[in-house]
Amino acid sequence: MQTSGQTSGRPSRPRRVRLATSALLALTLATTAAACGGGGDEGTTADGKIKLTVATFNEFGYEELIDEYNAMQDDVVVEQKKAGTANEHQDNLYTKLAAGSGLSDIEAIEVDWWSALMEQSDAFADLSDPEVEGRWLDWKAEAATTPDGKLIGYGTDIGPEGMCYRSDLFKKAGLPTDREEVAALFADWDSYFETGRQFVKKVPGTAWYDSSGGTAQAMINQVEYSFEDEDNTVIAADNPEVKAVFDAVTQNAADGLSTGLTQWSEDWTASFQDDGFATMACPGWMLGVIEGNADGVEGWDIANVFPGGGGNWGGSYLTVPAQGDHIEEAKALAAWLTAPEQQIKAFEAKGTFPSQVDALDDPTLTGATNAFFNDAPTGEILAERAEAVPFIAHKGPKFADINTAFQQAIQRVDEGKESPDEAWDSFLADVERLG
Amino acid sequence: MTRLDTRLTPYVFVSPFFLLFLLVGMFPLGYTAWVSVHQWGLLSGQGDYAGLDNYRRVLEDRYFWNALRNTFSIFLLSSIPQVLVALGLAGLLDTQLRGRTLWRMSVLLPFVVAPAAVALIFGNVFGDRYGLANEVVQAVGLDPIRWHVDTLASHVAIASMVNWRWTGYNALIFLAAMQAVPRELYESAALDGAGRVRQFLSVTVPMIRPTLVFVVITSTIGGLQIFAEPRLFDTQGLGGSDRQYQTLTMYLWELGWRVRDLGMASAVAWLLFLIIVVFAVLNLAISRRAGSLRGAR
Fold this sequence. Notes:
The structure holds two protein chains of two kinds. By secondary structure, chain A is an alpha/beta fold. Chain A contains 19 helices and nine strands. Chain A folds into two domains: 50-158 and 314-366, 3-Layer(aba) Sandwich (D-Maltodextrin-Binding Protein, domain 2), CATH 3.40.190.10; 160-312 and 374-434, D-Maltodextrin-Binding Protein, domain 2 (3-Layer(aba) Sandwich). In chain A, strands 1, 2, 3, 4, 5, 6, 7, 8 and 9 form a nine-stranded mixed sheet that branches. The interface between A and B is large, with 45 and 37 residues.
C-alpha cells in the first residue's frame, strides 16, 4: 500500500506558483458556479409583488385561508412552508435565528418554546397594536409578552384540556357513565385517583390512565411556579409542589393506575386498541389522535371537567422575525390570520381550537359535536374548559430541560429501573447538572 | 505551454474535490474547534473565550461516559457480527448459484431503505408489549424481553437495525474482492485436498485482506457515529429513561439542540473525532502488521 510520506518536503518555488494558480483557477470556477445557483431577489416575485412566506408545522388549517388572502391582495403573494413535525420546525427556527438570516416572514412557534425565545426577544418584531388588544384570552397573550411589555406573538390555537374516558369500561367497573356524573367524580386529582383505585380493582388488566408522564405533565402545568420561580431561579429540588406530583404519580404507578408506557411510543399507540387504559387528559387536538389510534373502539366520551380546575396543553403563535424584509406586511398578514373569523375557519378545517375570545361563543364552534365521542358537544365543552384555565404556568429558560429529567425519573420508576427514592435522587442530580 | 498544460491539468482536475473538502470538511472541523473553546449558545451565539472549560465539563459529565459506554457496546454488537456475516454471505454468493444476480441484488435491498423507515419498522418489531419480536419470544415459551428498557436488550435491538442495513452492503464489497481472487488458487487448494470451508479460510480470506481492513475501518467509523437508529428508537430521543442507549452523537445533539450549548456540543464532536482517529490509527497499525506478516511468509 502506498503511503503519503513520499511527497513530503517543501515544493520548489515554480511548483508552488503553479499549485497556487491551479488552486485559484478552480476556486474561481467553483465560485462562479455557486453564484449562478443563487439568482433572483428574495422577497419579491418576478412581477414585482411582495412575497411573504409563512412557516408552520403539523396542521394549522391555513391552506384555504392563504388562498383567500392572496385573492384579496394585489401586491402581496403569500406562500406557506409546512414542516412535518414540530421538532423539525424548531431545529430550523433555532438554527436560522442563530445565523441571523434565512427565516420566513412569519414563523409559527409552539407555546413551550417561549422560555428559550424570550431571551432572544429582540430577534422578533414588536406586534403590539391597539387593534388586537383584548383579542385573546388573557393568559394566551401574556405568555407572548416580554417583561418590558412587547407583544411578540399572535396566538393561534390553544389546548384546553377535558377528560376523555371509556364509558364501556366504566360500566364494566360499575362506575357512572353519564358525562355529568363522571365530571363530578373528577373534580380534583385526589378523587380522580381514588376512582382509579376502585376501577383497577374491578377491571384487572386495564390501567386507569394512559401514562404517568402525561398525568404528571398535566399536574405540573397547574403549578404556577414549578421548576423555576419568577426570577428564573431553579427551585425544582426544594419545591414541595413538585415533590407532591412526583409522589402522587409514582404511588399511582405502584397501585397499577398507569400503563407504564411513554406517550407517543408504539406500545402506547397500540394500547388504544387493547383496552389498555380507561381515561386520559385530552386537549382539543388530542380528540383526533384518540379517534385515529382507537379506530373501531366504541365507548369513548369526554367529560366537561379537568381535575384541579383548568389546564392547557400546547397551542401555538405566529411571530414576525425582525430579520425579515417586509415586517409591516407580515404583521398585517399575521393579524389577519389570527383574527377570530379566520381562526374559526381553521378550526373547521383541522380542529385547531381558537384562542380568541370572540371565537369562543361563535355558533360554529359552540355547535360542534363529535360523533366518535358519543356525540359529545365538544365545541361547547372545550370552550368552557378554556375559560376555566386560570393562568399559564411560568416556564423559564430551564423548564424544558428540567421537565425532561422529571419525566424520565418518573419513567424509570414505571419501568422498575429505580425505586421512587432512587429516581428522585437521580432527578436532583440531573437538576444539579443542568445548573 | 503544452508542458505547463500537462503539468497543470491533473491538479486542476483533482482540485474540485480538495476545494470542496476544504470547504465542507476542513472548515467545519476548524470552526468546531473554535466554537469548542468558547461559551456558545445555540440562540445567543458566541460568548466569552472559555479555554478548555467545555472539555472539562464534558469529561466531568457522567452522561458523557454513559454515552461512550453505550456507543462502544452498540458498535461491538453491530460491527463484529456484521463483518462476519457479510463475509460468510459473500462467500456463499461467490459460488455458482442459480439466479446469482437476483441474490446479489436482494442483499443490497435493505441498504436502499431509508434509516428512518427502518427505525419505524423495527420500532414496531421491538415493541415491549405489543411487538412482533416478543410474540415470537413468548411463543417459544420465554418471558417477553423489555427491548426499550433493559440496557443490553436495547443495544441488541439497535444493533440489529444497523446490521440489517449494512450487512448486505458490506457483503457486496467483499464479493467484489472475492471475484478478483485467481481461480487457480482454489484449484491447487482442491488438489491439496482442501474442502470448501478450508479453501474459504485459507485462500479467500487472506486474499481479500486489504478489503477486509477497509470494511473494518469504515464500519468502525460508522459504528462510532450511530445516530438515526437509537435516536428514533423512542419518541424522546434521549436514549431511554435512563439514557441506556444514548450514543455519543445523540449526546452531542442533546447538548446542542436541547440544552442549546454549542460550546459543549462542539467539545463532544472533537472528542469523538479524536476517538475515531485513535481507532483508525490502531486499525492501520494492525493491518500493516498483518500485511508484513504475510510478506514474510
